[in-house]
Amino acid sequence: MLDHCQALMGNRMEPVPDIHRTTVAAVATPVGTGAVSMIRISGPDAVKVADLAAGGRVSPQAPRLACLRVIRDAGGLVIDDGILTVFRAPHSYTGEDTVEFTGHGGILATREVLARFLECGAVAAGPGEFTRRAFLNGKLDLTQAEGVMDLISAQTRLSLRAARSQLEGTLGRRTTEARDSLLETLAHLEAWIDFPEEDIDPQTGELLRARVRAVLATVESLLATADQGRVLREGVRTVIFGEPNVGKSSLLNRLLGFERAIVSEIAGTTRDTIEETINLHGIPLRLVDTAGVREAADRIEAEGIQRTVRQIEAADLLLEIADASRPKPEDAVFPASAAKHLLVLNKTDLGEHPSWQGTAAVRLSCASGAGFDHLSETIRDSLHFGEVDWGEHAVAINARHQQSLMLARTALLAALELLDDPSCDPELAAIDLREALDALGEIPGRVDTEDLLGVIFSRFCIGK
Fold it and tell me: Taking the model in full, what pTM does it have?
């Protein structure tokens, strides 16, 4: 039996041929030992599968009523007992008949229960299979489905807030409203083209342009959240750099709250980059400690300095550390970077050298901890992630949304250029508006693209 079930489980990455004919099952809780584990079954035969495994006690069970049920093997021996709940279609997460069994959290017990459900007729679910079915059955749009994954992987308060907003349909609603408005505009334009004898009011042309501009404004406002979306999902790449012995590793350790990097008065101690992530005011910061920039003493240090240069070029935020107790150094030439740049003066507990007077910088002491609240607030404000900057919308698009919105913006700008030129054929503008319509439709999943769905749901965990 186990060999048969393991063979079935080994095929879980294969696409389900028809969601309306197959019933899938998977463990929906993390792998490991815990107090409880939950196995989910979804599909037309979900109740039948559970019925076979639980001795016929599931089919008469009232929906949404949690009942104690015993799961037995083919020979009648008890595998596990736990709480079983039935959700009848369409009132379930997937929109299909769904059964959830919550049993004891042992690895073997969980595996045996799943194997029994597979033996009773279910097929092992692939990554994101349940959420994919929810999308295909109209329970979620594509942005909400992506919001589920963002919610699971959220590591900060702001990323959780953005994921919750997306799961509630904010992004899907805004793009759908823009698409519906554009659809109405396109219909009006095509009527203008097809029925010239109707002598449409000249003001209608300006009204059409105004509607296209309104859609363009929505597209651009969503595109403006791309950086926030990337930061919330990936973190701010924050590179700590400066001359040797100014306190770069001490700053990293202070921000982390533990001794991650070796601190020494010997110049050149840090030879390689060190990367860790912290949560600062709800913003994930990917801190990168780098080798001190100076003339290298050997080939190993030279390689460390070259890595520092590459990190600076790829940074989102640069924290340049200097020793406040020493004279202000001559301006150093660092690689060009579009990142935000903050100067941090360390060792203020030793006194500040007069040459630093009037220099705009965050002043702190890694030894005493003074000034770190100011540094945190300055970083937050420089990234525009305060509550005032974040606003009420809490929409943060991802790379897929950004690509579709950029295509829509290009098409809308082209359409406006044609509509503003009386000598141009309005039918050409209609072609651009159709392209914008398709691009906007890809965001909530109004355009059926199987390859796109495969890419999105492959990133999900099995069981969700």
Answer: 0.71
- How long, in residues, is the chain? 464
**Cα–Cα–Cα angle for 92, 95, 101, rounded to 5 degrees:** 45
- Give all domains of the chain, ordered by start, each with its CATH number: 2-136 (3.30.1360.120), 166-225+397-444 (1.20.120.430), 237-390 (3.40.50.300)
Judged against a pLDDT cut of 50, whether residue 294 lies above it is answered with no
The pair phi, psi for residue 55, each rounded to 5°, is 70, 35
Nearest to 401 by CA among 462, 454, 452: 452
Dist CA 195 CA 422 (whole Å)? 17
The DSSP result for 54-75, as a single string, is TTT-STTSPTT--EEEEEE-TT
β-strand pairing of 34-42 with 24-27: antiparallel
Would the pLDDT of 7 be above 50?
no
Q: Where is pLDDT greater, at 54 or 256?
A: 54
pLDDT of residue 248: 82
The answer to whether the CB of 188 falls within 8 A of the CB of 204 is yes
Strand, helix or coil for residue 231: helix
Q: 232-282: per-residue pLDDT in tens? A: 777 788 888 888 788 888 888 888 876 654 444 444 444 446 777 888 877
